[in-house]
Amino acid sequence: MFFAPKEIKTETGESLVYNLHRTMVSKEFTFDAAHHLFNYEGKCKSLHGHTYHLQIAVSGYLDDRGMTYDFGDLKNIYKNHLEPYLDHRYLNESLPYMNTTAENMVFWIFQTTSKYLSEERELRLEYVRLYETPTAFAEFRREWLDD
């Protein structure tokens, strides 16, 4: 059951920021791609494909609208700088030379996304998680850059 609002709120001129702490937002994407693995003696040595599931998480302090990072801006980074290399591609040809394991790919995605993330409000890429199957993923986290 839905109720109609009694009134439509309007801005009062006061701050729209309620949360003063760092907050993380994440957006998820799906893409299909083919690859094969080098130096591997299993069935993945042969050409095969996956429907990958990608999560990209960004943290920062809220802007004057009360937003950490616009989900649309994260989508634009994916659409313009990641998707052309990932979706419906043969990854061994479209990515830089590497064994196209989820572990290598997730680091490339992290590096590429970082290049296009705005530096305002101390925004930082926290992690990238790449599912190769519904139950298997690789992840790269910002804090591991120092390891």
TrEMBL record:
Cross-referenced Pfam families: PTPS (PF01242)
Name of the protein in its database record: 6-carboxy-5,6,7,8-tetrahydropterin synthase
Keyword Metal-binding in record: yes
Species: Streptococcus thermophilus (strain ATCC BAA-250 / LMG 18311)
This protein's encoding gene: ptpS
Active site, renumbered: 44, 88, 132
GO BP: tRNA queuosine(34) biosynthetic process
Catalysed reactions listed for this entry: 7,8-dihydroneopterin 3'-triphosphate + H2O = 6-carboxy-5,6,7,8-tetrahydropterin + triphosphate + acetaldehyde + 2 H(+)
Its EC number(s): 4.-.-.-
Binding site for Zn(2+): 35, 48, 50
